From TrEMBL:
The keyword DNA-binding applies. One of its GO terms (cellular component) is cytosol. PROSITE patterns: HTH_RRF2_1, HTH_RRF2_2. This is HTH-type transcriptional repressor NsrR. Signal peptide: none annotated. Keywords: DNA-binding. The keyword Iron does not apply. GO terms for molecular function: DNA binding; DNA-binding transcription factor activity.
Amino acid sequence: MRLTTFTDYGLRTLMRLAGEPERLFTSDEIAQAFGISRHHLSKIISTLAEAGIVATRRGSGGGFHLARPAESISVGEVARLLEGRQALVECFEPGGGACTLMPGCRLKGRLAAAQEAFFRELDGTTLAECAYPPLPAPAP
Protein backbone atom coordinates (compact mmCIF):
# COMPACT_ATOMS: atom_id res chain seq x y z
CA MET A 1 0.00 0.00 0.00
CA ARG A 2 1.24 3.47 -0.76
CA LEU A 3 0.29 6.53 1.25
CA THR A 4 -0.74 9.66 -0.63
CA THR A 5 1.46 12.73 -0.61
CA PHE A 6 -1.28 14.42 1.45
CA THR A 7 -0.85 11.80 4.21
CA ASP A 8 2.94 11.81 3.93
CA TYR A 9 3.08 15.59 4.41
CA GLY A 10 0.52 15.41 7.20
CA LEU A 11 2.55 12.83 9.10
CA ARG A 12 5.78 14.79 8.63
CA THR A 13 4.09 17.91 9.95
CA LEU A 14 2.69 16.11 12.99
CA MET A 15 6.03 14.47 13.72
CA ARG A 16 7.61 17.93 13.77
CA LEU A 17 4.90 19.31 16.03
CA ALA A 18 5.37 16.33 18.36
CA GLY A 19 9.09 17.13 18.57
CA GLU A 20 8.32 20.45 20.27
CA PRO A 21 4.81 20.05 21.65
CA GLU A 22 4.73 23.36 23.54
CA ARG A 23 5.76 25.44 20.52
CA LEU A 24 3.52 27.25 18.01
CA PHE A 25 4.54 26.61 14.38
CA THR A 26 3.71 28.63 11.27
CA SER A 27 2.72 27.29 7.87
CA ASP A 28 5.67 29.06 6.26
CA GLU A 29 8.10 27.46 8.69
CA ILE A 30 6.82 23.90 8.13
CA ALA A 31 6.45 24.37 4.36
CA GLN A 32 10.05 25.58 4.07
CA ALA A 33 11.42 22.88 6.38
CA PHE A 34 9.90 20.08 4.29
CA GLY A 35 9.93 21.74 0.88
CA ILE A 36 6.17 21.55 0.41
CA SER A 37 3.59 23.95 -0.92
CA ARG A 38 2.18 26.31 1.73
CA HIS A 39 -1.22 26.05 0.02
CA HIS A 40 -1.12 22.22 0.20
CA LEU A 41 -0.02 22.41 3.83
CA SER A 42 -2.95 24.71 4.66
CA LYS A 43 -5.39 22.06 3.41
CA ILE A 44 -3.67 19.44 5.55
CA ILE A 45 -3.72 21.63 8.67
CA SER A 46 -7.39 22.41 8.09
CA THR A 47 -8.23 18.70 7.91
CA LEU A 48 -6.21 17.95 11.05
CA ALA A 49 -7.79 20.88 12.91
CA GLU A 50 -11.33 19.76 12.00
CA ALA A 51 -10.49 16.34 13.45
CA GLY A 52 -9.18 17.86 16.70
CA ILE A 53 -5.60 16.72 16.16
CA VAL A 54 -4.17 20.21 15.60
CA ALA A 55 -5.19 23.47 17.25
CA THR A 56 -4.81 26.70 15.30
CA ARG A 57 -4.47 30.31 16.35
CA ARG A 58 -5.11 33.14 13.88
CA GLY A 59 -3.59 36.57 13.67
CA SER A 60 -0.29 38.06 14.66
CA GLY A 61 1.66 35.50 16.63
CA GLY A 62 -0.63 32.78 15.33
CA GLY A 63 0.18 29.31 14.13
CA PHE A 64 -0.66 25.75 15.06
CA HIS A 65 0.33 23.00 17.50
CA LEU A 66 -0.89 19.59 18.59
CA ALA A 67 -4.32 19.77 20.18
CA ARG A 68 -3.68 16.62 22.22
CA PRO A 69 -0.59 15.00 23.72
CA ALA A 70 1.52 13.21 21.09
CA GLU A 71 1.21 10.01 23.16
CA SER A 72 -2.55 9.98 22.56
CA ILE A 73 -2.41 10.33 18.76
CA SER A 74 -1.76 7.13 16.82
CA VAL A 75 -0.22 7.12 13.36
CA GLY A 76 -3.11 4.85 12.34
CA GLU A 77 -5.69 7.43 13.39
CA VAL A 78 -3.95 10.06 11.27
CA ALA A 79 -3.48 7.75 8.28
CA ARG A 80 -7.15 6.73 8.33
CA LEU A 81 -8.20 10.37 8.51
CA LEU A 82 -5.96 11.60 5.70
CA GLU A 83 -6.28 8.52 3.49
CA GLY A 84 -10.05 8.30 4.03
CA ARG A 85 -10.82 9.91 0.69
CA GLN A 86 -8.57 7.52 -1.21
CA ALA A 87 -9.94 4.18 -2.42
CA LEU A 88 -7.40 1.34 -2.38
CA VAL A 89 -8.91 -0.01 -5.61
CA GLU A 90 -11.70 1.22 -7.85
CA CYS A 91 -14.30 -1.16 -6.43
CA PHE A 92 -13.87 0.47 -2.98
CA GLU A 93 -15.26 3.74 -4.35
CA PRO A 94 -18.90 4.56 -3.59
CA GLY A 95 -21.09 2.61 -6.01
CA GLY A 96 -18.30 0.14 -6.76
CA GLY A 97 -16.68 2.15 -9.52
CA ALA A 98 -16.52 0.48 -12.90
CA CYS A 99 -15.66 -3.03 -11.69
CA THR A 100 -16.87 -5.70 -14.09
CA LEU A 101 -16.42 -8.49 -11.52
CA MET A 102 -19.03 -7.18 -9.08
CA PRO A 103 -20.82 -8.78 -7.28
CA GLY A 104 -18.90 -12.07 -7.78
CA CYS A 105 -15.41 -10.79 -6.92
CA ARG A 106 -13.70 -12.76 -4.16
CA LEU A 107 -10.68 -10.45 -3.93
CA LYS A 108 -12.38 -7.34 -2.52
CA GLY A 109 -12.81 -8.81 0.97
CA ARG A 110 -9.17 -9.82 1.16
CA LEU A 111 -8.01 -6.42 0.00
CA ALA A 112 -10.22 -4.76 2.61
CA ALA A 113 -8.78 -7.05 5.32
CA ALA A 114 -5.20 -6.27 4.21
CA GLN A 115 -5.92 -2.55 4.27
CA GLU A 116 -7.37 -2.80 7.77
CA ALA A 117 -4.35 -4.83 8.95
CA PHE A 118 -2.10 -2.06 7.60
CA PHE A 119 -3.98 0.58 9.61
CA ARG A 120 -4.10 -1.65 12.72
CA GLU A 121 -0.30 -1.95 12.58
CA LEU A 122 -0.02 1.85 12.46
CA ASP A 123 -2.43 2.08 15.42
CA GLY A 124 0.36 0.65 17.59
CA THR A 125 2.62 3.66 17.02
CA THR A 126 2.08 7.12 18.48
CA LEU A 127 3.32 10.47 17.29
CA ALA A 128 5.45 10.67 20.43
CA GLU A 129 7.42 7.64 19.19
CA CYS A 130 7.99 9.32 15.83
CA ALA A 131 8.63 12.86 17.06
CA TYR A 132 11.16 14.92 15.13
CA PRO A 133 13.45 15.88 16.67
CA PRO A 134 13.09 12.95 19.08
CA LEU A 135 11.66 13.76 22.47
CA PRO A 136 14.04 13.23 25.42
CA ALA A 137 13.66 9.89 27.17
CA PRO A 138 11.69 10.05 30.44
CA ALA A 139 13.82 10.19 33.59
CA PRO A 140 14.07 6.85 35.42
